Amino acid sequence: MLRRAFHAMGTEVGLLLDAEPSAESELAFAHAEREFERLEAMLSRFRSDSQLSALNRSGVLDAGPDLAALTRLAVEARERTGGLFDPTVHDALVAAGYDRTFDEVLREGHAQPAKACRGQVWIKGSRIELEPGFRLDLGGIAKGYAVDRALARLSLAGPCLVNAGGDLAGRGRLWPVGVETADGELTLGLENGALATSGRDRRRWQRGGHELHHLIDPATGTSAEGEFLRVTVLAPTAVDAEVLAKAAFLGAPVETPAVFVTTDGRTLLKGGIG
């Protein structure tokens, strides 16, 4: 089993390739890593030179194919989830204190007033236009998109798994994947599919004596409250898994396999996991 690790999109990325060492496998690793680097440079809201930042500054952009495709996926996901997944939560995240890369987020401070979400986004061909006063955050779905793209590159060299901080996608064989539960770890088999987790137990900070986190409820513009600590969902692609995990965390019904951990320490298995 060949392995490669690097840092991208604010997390540690791990690549596994079931192949013998060769020039082909090294090239596949390099292509997968470069895909993460390329997409981060284009889609990060923390980089002033990214296409996403240019769109957020001007409100309109003739975007490259990846930003146009991902924005379209995000808008479609909002429709599919009844607004529970919403790419226009950017200013709500900033108001809550997530205004820089998470490693630099101040652990204490004062939150700004909540920013309403659900701004309109218009896409015609490659041209994206935002409703005045709204900006996009594509953090989670962009990471899923990068996982899917890197997997496509890496799979040309053999069965493989891509893990970007808990967003995983595998192809070519059955991959055992550990999922944290309230009581320990549950091992799931991942074959030609993906998995993502949304939770309030990782990226969190304090503002005005209140604990906040990065999962914004679009209905309130503030960090979501509810019975779940985290939700892990299996889906055909990492993009789908990201969208469904966020929606499930906010209370959407789940038909795909999923693992829920509640704030009172229970583990709920749904969608055929038993």
Describe this structure in words.
This protein has helices at 23-43, 51-58, 65-80, 90-96, 139-154, 238-249, and strands at 2-8, 11-17, 60-62, 121-124, 127-130, 160-164, 167-171, 175-180, 185-190, 193-199, 204-207, 210-213, 216-217, 222-223, 228-235, 258-262, 267-270. The longest helix is centred in the N-terminal third of the chain and has 21 residues, at 23-43. The chain is globular, with a radius of gyration of 18 Å. Strand 4 (121-124) and strand 5 (127-130) form a beta hairpin. With 274 residues, the chain is an alpha+beta fold. The strands form 5 sheets. Strands 1-2-6-7-10-15-16-17 form an 8-stranded antiparallel sheet. The protein has a 3-stranded antiparallel sheet with strand order 3-5-4, covered by helices on one side. It has a single domain (2-270), classed as T-fold (Roll). It contains 6 helices and 17 strands. The mean pLDDT is 88.
With strands numbered from the N-terminus, the spatial order across the biggest sheet is 1-2-6-7-10-15-16-17
Shape assignment: globular
CATH-level-2 architecture? Roll
Mind telling me the CATH class?
Alpha Beta
Helix content: 25-40%
Please outline the major beta sheet. Answer: 8 strands, antiparallel
Query: What separation lies between the terminal Cα atoms?
Result: 29 Å
How many domains would you count in the coordinates? 1
Oligomer: single chain
CATH superfamily: ApbE-like domains
With helices defined by DSSP (H or I, 4 residues minimum), what is the helix count? Answer: 6
One letter per element, helices H and strands E, the order comes to EEHHEHHEEHEEEEEEEEEEHEE
Strand content: 25-35%
| Uncertain runs | none
Q: What's the total number of strands? A: 17
